[in-house]
Write a structure and sequence with these properties.
about 600 residues, mainly alpha, Rossmann fold, 4 domains, four-stranded parallel beta sheet
Length: about 600
């Protein structure tokens, strides 16, 4: 075994790393301490289960390889992959190299400065191989640094229209991160240049430096600079955007262990806020940015304000809650849930719920058209025609008026009023004895599924119900010579994962076109009840943006499966807009 080398320049790195570890241990321990008893039990049960292995796999794919980021933007994906995975390789390969050289455990600073202490010893196992692997890993990271610098100053080259605005402390930590790997290259190359050693990268750089620079005088200051820069990054990390690096791994474990965001326990929200990498992919996805030009309410800025304890009531309210940002978030942060929590904090309870006083009827199917359904009578009438033809015993629960499901109140932060209304509606539905609840409104559909606890009652959107009727032969339809572009409503598609039933139904009555923005990428119509501040003119711009995409292939009709989307898109007068149910009713064979 070789004696353990030491030099005083390792102290800045050692101190910085030790302080970071101490901070993280205390921070994570405090989170677990403040979890309620049920969540603590979930952690204990999950810790030594397959859930932890699943979490480790997710960490590898998302925190190191950045699979989701690659799917959204390959250039950004490569940047994050090269920085994260390259640094990971430097640590892991360096640890193996140091362990083999020492014949056992080595001080934790030793792999980081290995080249300084062991510049040309090729006597241990796989010594030359380690040199080449370490150079390859360093080159991978350096390529990521180059892309990161390009992204910061020339964002469109990496496929972004907008990037995040950085605070001074974030810039300082960012620049220290950028310097780490060039300094490592220079320090290692300087040592290699003096000893005639190195790999495919450090050897030629070292020889060039030896031929042009006073290398002996520069070597030691370069190692000091490298150590000090690492120290600055580690000390600044917990107080900057880069706290996401360790925290998103904790979030992945918590999520796999079954811990969820709760209204009365904000701990997981803090974990999510700190897990935001501020990559900026949510900015270009937000139609308030691309269609309206609003540049301060996107998810990244909303979370930043929460983290910095700044006023954020405007950002909490000014959101379509369409889920476009959430669908591409590489960390999987529950962005809509966080906004809802903060709307409750800023919105006084002023709504008076309008109760359903109709007597429940004993039926097989309850049909609930919803408030918005009453604003588009053609959709409502089409569903009545379909229900009458189905042969099912049904009760049109809100036939006499738009009795609210409660979700619009919930989206507005009126939680208490929403819960009272939901309890009354739930009682009526259960008393009917129905086994199936059908609704035309995705907003209603989502709240019935998530908040009503209708155990034993199947909840269907009307497109799912219509598909079942067609498949079973209860209703017969004739396919028309009609080209149709389908618009995925936010709440039905991204919100509830219902993508295929509407398309299957449309394909049975018309020729379905593909569009540039569909399924998870569907554009919001702009009529969202979730936005509490958006002027009608801005809503119109968002609707026009969506219709421009939907009508690019000149369809005969634009179809949707949401009464609010139909009403909003139709106002553009760019093409006829009909609900899926209307097209089916028109194609039915008596």
């Amino acid at each position: 075994m070789n004696p353990t080398p030491f030099d005083i320049f390792v102290l800045p790195f050692t101190v910085g790393m030790s302080l970071l570890f101490a901070y993280l241990i205390l921070k994570y321990a405090s989170w677990i301490w403040y979890f309620d008893r049920d969540d603590k039990l979930r952690i204990l049960r999950g810790l030594f289960s397959l859930k932890s292995l699943k979490a480790a796999k997710e960490i590898f794919l998302e925190s190191l390889v950045h699979r989701k980021m690659f799917l959204v933007n390959r250039r950004l994906g490569y940047m994050h992959f090269s920085l994260a995975f390259g640094w990971f390789l430097l640590i892991v390969i360096g640890a193996f190299e140091a362990h083999i050289y020492m014949g056992g455990a080595a001080p934790f600073y030793f792999p980081i400065f290995f080249v300084y202490f062991v510049p040309d010893d090729e006597s241990f196992f796989f010594a030359r191989g380690f040199v080449q692997l370490m150079d390859a890993s360093l080159l991978l990271v350096l390529s990521g640094v180059v892309v990161a610098i390009v992204k910061r100053f020339y964002k469109r080259i990496v496929g972004m229209r907008s990037t995040t605005n950085l605070r001074l402390r974030d810039k300082m930590v960012l620049y220290s991160l950028w310097l780490i790997f060039p300094l490592r290259l220079l320090a290692e190359s300087a040592t290699c240049g003096l000893h005639g050693s190195g790999g495919f990268l450090t050897y030629p750089v070292g020889q060039l430096m030896a031929a042009t620079l006073p290398l002996k005088a520069m070597e030691y200051p370069l190692w000091w600079a490298y150590s000090i820069d690492l120290c600055l990054f580690f000390i600044g990390l917990p107080f900057s955007r880069y706290m996401h690096i360790p925290t998103e791994m904790v979030l992945i474990f918590f999520r796999n262990w079954g811990i969820r965001l709760k209204p009365d326990n904000p701990i997981l929200e803090e974990v999510m806020v700190l897990s935001c990498p501020r990559c900026g992919v949510c900015i270009d996805r937000c139609q308030l940015n691309t269609a309206v030009g609003n540049h301060d309410t996107q998810a990244v800025y909303f979370l930043q304000r929460i983290r910095n304890h700044e006023q954020h009531s405007a950002q909490a309210k000014n959101c379509l809650m369409c889920g476009r940002c959430e669908s591409v978030c590489p960390v999987g942060i529950d962005l809509n849930a966080i906004r809802l929590r903060h709307r409750q904090n800023f919105t006084p309870e002023t709504f008076v719920p309008q109760y359903n006083n109709a007597d429940a009827q004993k039926v097989d199917v309850v049909f609930f058209t919803g408030c918005m359904g009453h604003l588009v009578p053609k959709t409502k009438d089409a569903m009545v025609k379909i229900l009458n033809a189905s042969g099912d015993r049904y009760w049109f629960m809100d036939a006499d008026g738009g009795i609210c499901c409660g979700r619009p109140m919930k989206l507005a932060g009126q939680t208490a009023a929403a819960q009272k209304l939901m309890a009354k509606n739930r009682q009526s539905i259960i008393e009917s004895g129905a086994r199936t609840l059908v609704t035309s409104c995705p907003i209603c559909y989502k709240v019935f599924r998530e908040d009503y606890n209708l155990e034993g009652i199947e909840i269907l959107h009307h497109t799912e119900y219509i598909k079942r009727l067609i498949d079973s032969g209860k209703i017969k339809v004739d396919k028309k010579n009609l080209a149709v572009a389908y618009h995925d409503p936010c709440e039905l598609g991204r919100g509830a994962g219902v993508y295929e039933p509407p398309r299957d139904v449309l394909s049975s009555v018309a020729t379905l076109q593909t569009t540039a923005n569909e399924r998870k990428n569907s554009l919001c119509c702009g009529g969202s009840l979730a936005n509490l501040t958006l002027p009608s003119a801005d809503k119109a711009r968002i609707a026009e943006q969506a219709m421009c995409s939907l009508t690019a292939n000149h369809p005969d009709v634009v179809a949707t499966a949401c009464p609010l989307c139909k009403k909003t898109l139709a106002r553009t007068q760019m093409a006829p807009v009909e609900d899926v149910a209307e097209l089916v009713a028109e194609a039915m064979i008596d």
